[in-house]
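Attaching the record inline, Q. Sequence:
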Amino acid sequence: MIRLFGHLYAPEDRGLCLITVVEGRIASIEPAPTPGLDAIGGTAVRILPGLLDIQINGAFGDDFASPAADMDRICRGLPSSGVTGFAPTIVTSAPEAYGPALANLGRRSAAGTARVLGAHIEGPFISPRQHGTHDPALLRLPDLREAASWLEAGDVAWLTIARSCPAPSR
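Structure, as predicted:
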């Protein structure tokens, strides 16, 4: 059991509160003018909900498009910046790169680590006219078989896709 004391923002300022966490879950939130002897925190401490990052291409020197990305280290490190859940993002890559990268991204959450919310595939089905930083040589038209292979390889939660032709004129 952990007891946290400070100004709780959820999202509004709920004032000084004592939050009891049991087995990684909030068990109670009580308004409290003082922390009690077993609490961590103080009147200057701000307690905020964890941040969710649904577009993160890598962290701590690792790229999520690489099957060598150290996911355990990343999941342990992200909470230091307030991130408690994230969608590792693979940018436009060669077709053969997705399977190994996606297989590496799946992780069960452990207490005190950031949770993987599912992978985000950004491209390769985006407009060659407006590709931003994506390598135009790797862009391609949408392919249902390729997309299905991603679902077999890992837990895909988001796909960024963009039309490759201008909207019809009216």
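Helices lie at 71-77, 98-105, 144-153. The longest helix spans residues 144-153.

More tomorrow.
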